[in-house]
Write a structure and sequence with these properties.
about 450 residues; alpha+beta; eleven-stranded antiparallel sheet; 8 helices; 11 strands; rod-shaped
Length: about 450
């Protein structure tokens, strides 16, 4: 085969390969413009000049065409003037060097496009779109509203990371799952279906999750996004729930290259305080039981004190009634002593009705006549009875009336001796019973267990 044939074959093979690489570049470029590149897909970095990165296959094809023209010219000269340019193999080293140079340049560009190569840190962060995220409510639905000062493509809304020296991650379930392209001055909404922890079927709303937090925790979300030039960035938003249940997404002042955002760590807490709190929590059941018992005892003492205060006045009244009961016993004893002495006296009187008027009162016509000792003692008994009756009325006992009818009338003058005895006896028993009735509530409250 002639040099022209070899060059043609080699050129055709390289042309097929270069066309394939050019199509891959155009495919990647279309994905970027459409905003549909997945977060894990390789992006065109900036390590190679942009023009060379896009058009290097066309440049290599142009050099190959030039090589074909050179081979064709060599064949033409060699046919018309044999041996003038020398044997064909003297061009072989130059041809191999040119091919090696082209392959090395192509390999460098292809390797720079490989996802295995890290993105360049030379990207100007100052030109990054300033992504903003707002939270809105509409009835029972919650929404994320994305805004940007430049064209931006949200690649991923990271999980809600909550740290309180412990950490949890809850992934957002958005509708649509990938937000569309964000144009400058426009807003893009995504409905929040809920947040779900990895390997957990439970789904919670954002508000419910933030309500369960405290002021010492940090709730953050990292949003990955890119611009229309293939640059990738990340921005952290700190979440705060307000009194009206609105959620503020506070952006970090600095925009980072993608995957270079750091979640802030909460402040360290005192380990001694934690251990003390755990010890208190361990003793909590016993302390709670003791507190309940103490509370019950305090409540019991309180009720006991209320009963004592409520029954104290009746208790004092019962003491007075008890004294009157003793006075009634003295009245009975005085009467029985009188009747016994009269029975034994040789000048005894007929005291079948001892409380009759003729014995307890002295009429005017009887002045100057001697008074029998029995009558004199009966008159003293009358005065004792009346004084006792007045004292009993002064107490104004509610619902009390002895069976003798003492509170309803004066000294009964028509009663026989035995009936008078029953009168005094029943009256004494009624007073004792009333005294016990009045004192029982106070005594029971006093003796009740606290």
């Amino acid at each position: 085969m002639s040099a022209s044939d070899w060059s043609t074959l080699l050129s055709n093979l390289l042309t097929v390969y270069l066309l394939y690489r050019q199509n891959k570049i155009f495919e990647r470029q279309n994905e970027i413009f459409a905003g549909n590149t997945e977060s894990g897909a390789p992006q065109m970095p900036n390590t190679v000049p942009r023009t060379l990165r896009r058009y290097w296959p066309m440049i290599v094809m142009a050099l190959m065409v030039l090589l074909m023209w050179t081979a064709t010219g060599y064949s033409y000269v060699d046919r018309n003037s044999p041996g003038r340019l020398g044997p064909p193999w003297i061009f072989l080293p130059g041809l191999l060097c040119l091919i090696g140079l082209l392959l090395a340049a192509g390999y460098t560009v292809v390797r720079s496009e490989s996802p295995a190569v890290e993105r360049s840190t030379a990207t100007d962060i100052r030109t990054a779109p300033r992504l903003q995220v707002d939270f809105s409510k509409s009835g029972q639905h919650h929404w994320l509203v994305f805004k940007s000062d430049k064209i931006a493509f949200v690649r991923k809304v990271g999980p809600l990371v909550s740290r309180e020296r412990y950490e949890s991650k809850h992934d957002f379930t958005l509708v649509p799952s990938t937000p569309p392209r964000i144009d400058p001055g426009a807003a893009v909404q995504c409905r929040i279906s809920g947040l779900r922890q990895v390997d957990s079927p439970d789904i919670r709303s954002l508000l419910d999750f933030l309500r369960s937090g405290n002021n010492e925790g940090v709730d953050s979300v990292v949003v990955d996004y890119g611009d229309d030039h293939g640059n990738e960035f990340s921005r952290r938003f700190d979440l705060t729930r307000n009194q009206d249940d609105s959620v503020a997404w506070i952006p970090e002042p600095v925009v980072h290259l993608r995957d270079q955002v750091q979640i802030p760590e909460p402040e360290w807490k005192n380990l001694a305080d934690l251990r003390y709190s755990l010890a208190l929590a361990e003793r909590f059941p016993e302390e709670q039981k003791a507190a309940l018992q103490y509370g019950q005892r305090v409540e019991s003492d309180k009720q006991r004190l209320i009963k004592l205060r409520a029954s104290y006045s009746n208790f004092l009244l019962s003491a007075k009634v008890s004294l009157l009961a003793e006075d009634a016993a003295s009245l009975l004893s005085e009467y029985l002593s009188l009747m016994e002495a009269n029975r034994k006296d040789k000048n005894r009187l007929d005291l079948s009705r001892p409380l009759g008027r003729e014995w307890i009162y002295r009429e005017d016509y009887e002045d100057g006549l001697p008074i029998p000792w029995q009558q004199l003692r009966l008159m003293f008994l009358r005065e004792h009875y009346n004084r006792h009756s007045w004292q009993l009325r002064d107490l104004a006992l509610t619902g009390f009336d002895s069976e003798s009818g003492l509170l309803n009338r004066r000294l009964p003058t028509e009663l026989r001796a035995a009936e008078v005895t029953d009168l005094f006896e029943n009256h004494k028993k009624a007073l004792l019973q009333k005294a016990e009735e009045l004192s029982n509530p106070y005594v029971e409250a006093l003796n009740s267990e606290s």
